[in-house]
Amino acid sequence: MRAMRVGLFDEGNLLEMPNLAIARYAGYYRARGDEVRHNRLGHYDLAYFSCIFPANWPRLRATIANLDADHVLSGGAGYELAASAVGQIARWITLPPDLEAFEPDFSLWPGWPWSLGFSYRGCIRACDFCVVPHKEGRQVRRVIGSYRELLRPEARRSPKGHHLVDMANNILAAPEQELAELWQEVRELGITIDYCQGFDVRLITQAVAKEMASLPLYARWRDRAGRWQKRRRLFLALDHSVLIPQFERAARWLLEAGVAPSSVYVFVLERPGQEADAMKRVQAAAGLRLRPYVMPLDDYQDAGLRRWANKRFYQFVPWNRYRRRRGRQLALEM
């Protein structure tokens, strides 16, 4: 049986980390002896496209139109949401079990030094902006036996100091005993861990806050030279102002447990036309000396709140004054 030529395509390094589905396909086909190429035009026996965000699907679709491939398979939340937006039926595609369990090949991203994976799938919430409950279900299910399984092979041999990005969507919804075992394993392995999603403040108890305070929670970032670094970070999600009382309670427990306010970032979802609600949440976070981080659902509807909050201009410029100045500046630029 001759080796196949397989093309793997994604949105590029959009999230500053590898596309896990594409990495698993790369590992699977390379183990079979097939030739694998990443984001490059050419002739292929098989081509796979993975799209996370619907805004990027038109560009990937244009790539398909210029591709010479015998078979093409597309998937990902972005592809499925883009299809449903034009009246097509969204078909939530997941990797086959044998591929889901396959060792991902991160060599397609030579600058990526960390480990990446899911400890749990699914989420108990039904947030209006999130596809996870539709794609993975509203029950949280464990998909690994231990964190060691998610480490790159070389890190399993010498894990101390290694960094793991766990993309579980709502890790605090995991059973208490299982979560305690995973966190104990983090300490025993000597790794740092990055839960890149915001923690669900509704699930933070005083006991959980103490555990979180003792965990080596870090986030990765690139310095000006493009090198990967990591800093201590803890992310909280504050998607609605009705959650402010629960958020403030959870935040105070974390601060009392010894978490530094400067290391706590608060994800503030800004919906178009709901600036006032987002402002309440920004003020709640800033009032506790935490760092609000506004994430608009629609960048084109962003009225400047994101820049004002994320750049911490709120520390010295009131919002109304900043908005007036920004409005005059935009008018001059037009």
What is this structure's SSE topology?
Blueprint: E1 5-9, H1 20-31, E2 35-38, E3 43-50, H2 57-65, E4 68-75, H3 77-85, H4 97-100, E5 115-117, E6 120-121, H5 132-136, E7 141-142, H6 153-157, E8 163-166, H7 176-189, E9 192-195, E10 199-200, H8 206-214, E11 218-222, E12 228-232, E13 234-238, H9 244-256, E14 264-270, H10 275-287, E15 291-296, H11 305-310, H12 319-333
Parallel strand pairs: 1-2, 1-3, 3-4, 5-8, 8-9, 10-13, 13-14, 14-15
Antiparallel strand pairs: 6-7, 11-12
Helix pairs in contact: 8-9
Structural account:
The longest helix has 15 residues, at about 320-334. The protein has twelve helices and 15 strands. It has helices spanning about 20-30, 55-65, 75-85, 95-100, 130-135, 155, 175-190, 205-215, 245-255, 275-285, 305-310, 320-334; strands at about 5-10, 35-40, 45-50, 70-75, 115, 120, 140, 165, 190-195, 200, 220, 230, 235-240, 265-270, 290-295. Mean pLDDT is about 90; it is low at about 330-334. Strand 13, helix 9 (about 245-255) and strand 14 form a beta-alpha-beta unit. The protein has about 325 residues and is an alpha/beta fold. The chain has a domain at about 1-110: 3-Layer(aba) Sandwich (Rossmann fold). About 30% of the residues are buried. Helix 8 (about 205-215) crosses helix 9. The chain has a four-stranded parallel beta sheet, sandwiched between helices. A four-stranded parallel beta sheet has the order 10-13-14-15.
